[in-house]
Automatic annotation (TrEMBL), chain A:
ATP binds at residue 46. This is Protein kinase domain-containing protein. It comes from the Eukaryota. Belongs to the protein kinase superfamily. The lineage of its organism: Eukaryota, Metazoa, Chordata, Craniata, Vertebrata. The keyword NADP does not apply. Keywords: ATP-binding, Kinase, Nucleotide-binding, Serine/threonine-protein kinase, Transferase. InterPro entries: Kinase-like_dom_sf (IPR011009), Prot_kinase_dom (IPR000719), Protein_kinase_ATP_BS (IPR017441), Ser/Thr_kinase_AS (IPR008271), Ser/Thr_Kinases-Pseudokinases (IPR051681). Residues 17-291 form the Protein kinase domain. GO terms for molecular function: ATP binding; JUN kinase kinase kinase activity.
Automatic annotation (TrEMBL), chain B:
This is Protein kinase domain-containing protein. GO terms for biological process: cell surface receptor signaling pathway; necroptotic signaling pathway. InterPro entries: Adaptor_Cbl_N_dom_sf (IPR036537), Kinase-like_dom_sf (IPR011009), MLKL-like_MCAfunc (IPR059179), MLKL_N (IPR054000), Prot_kinase_dom (IPR000719), Ser-Thr/Tyr_kinase_cat_dom (IPR001245), Ser/Thr_Kinases-Pseudokinases (IPR051681). Pfam families: MLKL_N, PK_Tyr_Ser-Thr. It comes from Mola mola. Signal peptide: none annotated. Keywords: ATP-binding, Nucleotide-binding. The keyword Nucleotide-binding applies. It comes from the Eukaryota. Residues 171-436 form the Protein kinase domain.
């Protein structure tokens, strides 16, 4: 399963890190920010709750993320091993990553409560496509398999990067996953393709493209798909062909350059038949062209949103709006354990 | 207008009954006073010419007629000597008056709305919220003194707040009486109240500071639901807040009998007690759906969200502090294993359907069916079967032949395929109260 042979990870010790702050939590650990005083910058650290042998998934995730090298995928800077200030006695392992100041797209949507300015919509659509395209063009391809707003992080200028490789895997055409494994590791129902609800499901690149289609809808509307439906209904209705409603978008489409084309792309991405969905390359070429139409006003749009975010932050007296990454619990190989112990 | 005469006749029967009540005199008179105020309004409608009244007025009158019948049944109870003895020992009769008064107020609001009665007149004063609450409280105190009821501390006197760990006493041995995939529930005591203490066992997906701010926000904006038919929340408690694995506890009212589902699984119940349980459940739902201020929906009505205390009072749980509770759970809530048996036909028909009170009444109808039959709804049916039968073939699970007719009608109306035809929670309370009174009289 190991994608490429990797150099040993940089070990980052607790003596280098100060000012620990909790900025969010995931399924199996809290996420902190801290200052790396030698590097003179802040970093994000994802720690495990308990050192109970489930380190495998974290380490596998790290492996997946270390293949990095794209500006649209979160960079892993090293591995933390030590006792963080607040944790008492036990030695813990963690991933040290670049800190994304503006949190996740999910946070942004929650704060704005409406569609972001159009230039930003088109840039987000394009940057997410770039991230997916990077993963899919690696050899072998890496599948993300959990694309959703909370796994798209935003830097200080609202540029998007993909994160959370808890579910990611290398694509081998021969790998078969039983339904059981799929259920346990589950993605998020609303973003999962219809074929994922069948007994035999082997994820492909087209699975990510489907999720990208739904994610596009969420970026454009600022909403969550099937907000009122319980997940059993979602699981049941998706294979029957239900998709998020386009009514609202279509009523706006005439006035916004490229919105109709973006809607078409969305619909192609969420085709029921995987082979009818476009490739990540096709998506990226399309979003690139669409983003070009809005590029000249992107700075204004970003500034406008940042101002709004700062104002909200002030109002709420909350000093942080950092990432709140949700990490799904996933059991995986224990590739790096020996190396670290 | 063929509603008007029956309304006036029920009203005059109420006035007669009130003269003979043996208990709760004050509150019966207050109901009477409010009925008189409404009667004036109804008489003014009578004076109008035919055809002047809109559909809204007719609808409001129809509702009022049901409410009055149900109020009449309530007052009749207190004219019978055998009731006096019973109510001294019961704890929930106060609430009967509350819900009748609320229904009369609903009737006033919709009638005056439909008639566009000017604000600020005499009538409004009778139904003004703050004075109503004050009057009702005084009435209750005086009635209770007359009945020599002990003035027990009331559960709603406690505000919802942050609780310190040392305020909680646990029952020994300290073993959970209920365990779910995300939590353990312990028995304990808090300021003299029997409480259930829910401890979240999974690593949570929210930091303590966020939980605290969500909690504070929710408590400040939350409408307090003070009703014996709504599960009372006392607050939350942090343990080891700054440690590596902080723990969160939610403290709530303890219900001896467990969930409604558990009670239905193990108890043999008479039709009267089944109807009473239906009425309790409807009162809980009505409190939530009620029209004053911004009404709310529960979003997850099933036989496990209702709890039952030792007096067999049914209580609706699972929505006070709902946001705080959600923040304590892992985001991936259910893995799609929840049954679709509570989903209304229109929800089954589209994943994009916007949830409404009508959807909720359908789910509630399924719960009422469970209370009536004791069985589990659409047991072992697949999603596909449920969709085919319920959404395509308009199937309703049958009620037993010996089910009292009035109860059957209520349950079937809630489960109507056409969401427009389902009753409101308020109508349900009225109809079920009449049903219970009829069954008790037999």
């Amino acid at each position: 399963m190991e994608p490429v042979s990797l150099p040993a990870p940089t070990l980052i010790e607790e003596s280098n890190l100060t000012d620990w702050k909790v900025i969010g939590s995931g399924g199996f650990g809290q996420i902190y920010s801290a200052r790396h005083h030698k590097w003179c910058c802040s970093v994000a650290i994802k720690l495990l709750h308990y050192d109970d042998g489930t380190n495998g998934s974290l380490l596998r995730e790290m492996d997946m993320m270390r293949i990095g090298g794209s500006p649209f995928v979160i960079q892993v800077l090293g591995v933390f091993k030590g006792r963080p200030a607040s944790s008492g006695l036990s030695v813990q392992l963690g991933l040290v990553m670049e800190l994304m100041e503006r949190g996740s797209l999910a946070c942004l949507q929650k704060t704005l409560c409406e569609t972001p300015p159009w230039p930003l919509v088109f840039r987000l659509a394009h940057q997410v496509a770039l991230g997916i395209n990077f993963l899919h063009t690696l050899s072998p391809s890496v599948l993300h398999l959990d694309l959703k707003p909370s796994n798209v992080l935003l830097d200080s200028s609202l540029n998007a990067k993909l994160t959370d490789f808890g579910l990611a895997r290398c694509y081998h055409s021969t790998t078969r996953l039983s339904k059981k494994v799929d259920r346990e590791e589950g993605g998020t129902n609303s973003y999962m393709p219809p074929e994922a609800f069948k007994v035999t499901y082997s994820p492909t690149r087209a699975s990510d493209i489907y999720s990208y289609g739904i994610l596009l809808w969420s970026i454009v509307t600022g909403k969550q798909p099937y907000a009122d439906a319980i997940s059993s209904i979602v699981r049941f209705r998706i294979p029957l062909g239900d998709r998020p409603s386009l009514d609202e978008i279509q009523s706006q489409a005439a006035g916004i350059a490229g919105l109709r084309r973006l809607t078409n792309l969305m619909e192609k991405c969420w085709e029921t038949k995987p082979n009818l969905r476009p490739t990540s390359h096709e998506c990226t070429t399309e979003t690139e062209e669409l983003y070009k139409m809005h590029r000249h006003t992107i700075n204004d749009a970003v500034f406008q949103v940042l101002k709004k975010l700062d104002k909200k932050e002030e109002e709420e007296g909350v000093t942080q709006q950092f990432q709140r990454v949700h990490i799904s619990q996933a059991s995986g190989s224990v590739l790096m354990l020996n190396l670290l112990n | 207008m063929d509603f008007i005469e029956p309304i006036l006749s029920v009203a005059s029967q109420i006035y007669n009954l009130v003269e003979n009540v043996k208990a709760n005199k004050k509150r019966c008179r207050r109901v009477c006073q409010r009925v008189r105020a409404l009667e004036d309004l109804v008489r003014s409608i009578k004076k109008r010419k035919q055809g002047q009244n809109s559909a809204d007025v007719e609808k409001a009158l129809r509702q009022l007629s049901i409410t009055l019948t149900s109020a009449q049944e309530l007052i009749r109870k207190y004219t019978l000597a055998k009731w006096v003895e019973r109510i001294v020992n019961s704890s929930s009769h106060g609430d009967e008056f509350n819900s009748v008064n609320e229904r009369l107020n609903d009737a006033f609001q919709s009638l005056s709305g439909a008639l566009q009665v000017e604000q600020g007149n005499m009538l409004n004063q009778v139904f003004e919220l703050s004075s109503r609450e004050k009057e009702d409280e005084v009435d209750q105190r005086e009635d209770d003194t007359e009945l020599k009821r002990l003035n027990k501390p009331r559960i709603t006197d406690e505000v919802i707040r942050m609780i310190k760990a040392d305020e909680l006493k646990y029952h020994y041995p300290k073993e959970p009486f209920m365990t779910t995939s995300t939590s353990e529930v312990y028995r304990g005591e808090f300021h003299g109240f029997q409480v259930a203490i829910k401890r979240y066992t999974e690593p949570v997906s929210t930091s303590p500071r966020d939980v605290r701010s969500i909690f504070n926000k929710e408590v400040s904006t939350m409408k307090r639901f003070e009703s014996p038919n709504i599960l009372r929340m006392f607050g939350i408690c942090f343990q080891d807040e700054d440690g590596p694995s902080p723990q969160f506890l939610i403290v709530m009212e303890y219900c001896e009998m467990g969930s409604l589902r558990q009670v239905l699984d193990k108890c043999k119940l008479s039709w009267t007690s089944r109807a009473c349980m239906c009425l309790d459940a409807a009162k809980g739902l009505y409190r939530l759906h009620q029209t004053e201020e911004k009404s709310k929906v529960h979003g997850c009505i099933n036989s496990s969200t209702f709890l039952v205390d030792k007096g067999y009072t049914v209580k609706l749980g699972g929505f006070e502090l709902a946001k705080t509770e959600t923040s304590l759970k892992k985001q991936a809530k259910d893995k799609g294993s929840t049954s679709l048996c509570y989903s209304s036909p229109e929800m089954l028909g589209s994943a994009n359907y916007v949830y409404s009170k009508e959807c909720e009444i359908y789910s509630f109808g399924i719960v009422l069916w469970e209370i009536a039959t004791g069985q589990k709804p659409l047991k072992d049916w697949s999603s596909q079967d449920i969709y085919q039968k319920v959404c395509k073939e308009k199937f309703q699970e049958p009620l037993p032949d010996n089910c009292p007719e009035a109860l059957r009608q209520v349950i079937n109306a809630c489960r109507d395929y056409d969401s427009f035809k389902r009753p409101s929670a308020g109508e349900l309370v009225d109809k079920l109260r009449s049903t219970v009174a009829q069954l008790e009289a037999q």
